[in-house]
Structure formats: C-alpha cells, structure tokens
Amino acid sequence: MQGLVQAMQTQAHTQAALQAQLEAQICLDGAYERLAFNHRTLDEALSAACRQEGEMEQYLEEKKASQKRPATTFQ
C-alpha cells in the first residue's frame, strides 16, 4: 500500500513538472513570436528611415543645384 501511495505522489509530481514545462514552453513560444514581430517591425522602420534619408539627401542636392543655376529673366 505504501508503494502505491509513493507511486501516486511521484506521478503527481511528474504531472506538475510536465505542466510547468508545458506552460513555460507556451510562454517561450509567445516570446519568440513577439521577438520575430518586433524584429520585423524594427527592420521595416529602419528601412523606411534609410529611404527617407536618401530622399531628403536627393531633395537637398536638387535644391542646391537649382540655386546655383542662373535665374532666367522674362522680358
């Protein structure tokens, strides 16, 4: 009888450990999904910032070039 009680206690501890492990894995999976999403979002934000910086540089170069051209007068 004592062996049965001990086996049941061991089974209960094993089930509790497996449940905790499963919950931790679910939590970790969610963290990986959030990390992947955040990485994708950050990558998109960096790409947009680089694109905007390039557009701004082009605009400034064109503006500088237009200021160097002599103004045409209408007669």
Summarize the structure in words:
The model has no long low-confidence stretch (mean pLDDT 87). By secondary structure, this protein is an all-alpha fold. The longest helix is centred in the middle third of the chain and has 67 residues, at 2-68. The chain has a domain at 20-57. The chain has one helix spanning 2-68. It is built from one helix and no strands.
Which helices and strands occur, and which strands form pairs?
Elements: H1 2-68
Rounded Rg: 33 Å
- Strand proportion, as a percent range, falls in under 5%
- Main pleated-sheet profile: none
Q: How many H/I helical runs?
A: 1
What are the key terms here?
75 residues; mainly alpha; 89% helix
